[in-house]
Amino acid sequence: MSLSILLNGARGRMGRAVSTAAGELGLRIGAAVDVGDNPAPGIGACDVIIDFSTPAATPALLRLAVKHRKPIVIGTTGHTAAEKRRLLPLAARIPCVWAGNFSVGVNLLFHLTRQAAHILDANYDAELIEMHHRFKKDAPSGTAARLLEIILKERRLTSAALRHGRKGITGERSPREVGIHSLRGGDVVGDHTVIFAALGERLELVHKASDRAIFARGALRAAQWIVAQPPGVYDMQDVLGLKD
């Protein structure tokens, strides 16, 4: 399917990757905009919007998409939970894929993590380690945040159970906590390890990304999928048919 795409965040690392992947797939970037640019002039001729920019840009871009009834794919990360809650009703007025990670492999990791967290009880301590390049601005990553949401939901815990590192914490580990550890350095594209550790055995689910092209191709796959969907907020589990 040939699409004309409005790409927001075109000069960023992910924006450049999307532009390259679109050319390889025969898709057209009809308008390429970035911080300080006005996306409005290019939106009329586009079929779908792909956004890899900054959290601050999301509200205005969503309002523009709703005004022109354009489907949107949001890959920007770093929104707070409160910000996302405020924006979801607006996003639901149009077809929208909102995901923290567009890799097919990572979305399979989400699926497997859900199964493991459901099957393995509190005797299996849940910990998550993520590592990204030194330039990444948000921590934990959007992918790690989604993995944590899955674990908390399956274990019927709230965000109060999260332990971001353990500096200053004394005493034994509680079975009702979930550890998250964010590492930053070099040019690491994205590594995520989910650990379920019991007395006597340990299960590790690992995904390592070495090329941003995997995220770009996934975002373009989402863009091709979302243009045929009714209004609502979807994620890559929907795009890939992994929902139970």
Q: What does this protein structure show overall?
A:
This protein is of the alpha/beta class and 244 residues long. It has 2 domains: 4-102 and 212-239, Rossmann fold; 104-209, Dihydrodipicolinate Reductase, domain 2 (2-Layer Sandwich), CATH 3.30.360.10. The chain is 35% helix and 25% strand. The protein is built from 8 helices and 11 strands. Helix 5 (104-119) packs parallel to helix 6. It is elongated. The two termini are 27 Å apart. The model has no long low-confidence stretch (mean pLDDT 94).
Tell me about the biggest sheet? 6 strands, parallel
Query: SS-based structural class?
Result: alpha/beta
**Which CATH class of the largest domain?**
Alpha Beta
CATH fold call of the largest domain: Rossmann fold
Could you tell me the strand content as a percent range? 25-35%
- Counting DSSP H or I runs of 4 or more residues, the number of helices is 8
Radius of gyration, in angstroms, nearest whole number: 19 Å
| Integer count of domains | 2
Terminal Cα span: 27 Å
Task: Tell me the strand order in the biggest sheet.
Answer: 2-1-3-4-5-11
| SSE order | EHEHEHEHEHEHEEEEHEH
Assembly classification: single chain
By CATH, the architecture of the largest domain is named: 3-Layer(aba) Sandwich
Looking at this structure, what is the CATH superfamily of the largest domain? NAD(P)-binding Rossmann-like Domain
Helix content: 25-40%
Give the strand tally: 11
Shape: elongated
Stretches where pLDDT is under 50 for at least 5 consecutive residues are none
Query: Taking all residues together, what is the mean pLDDT?
Result: 94
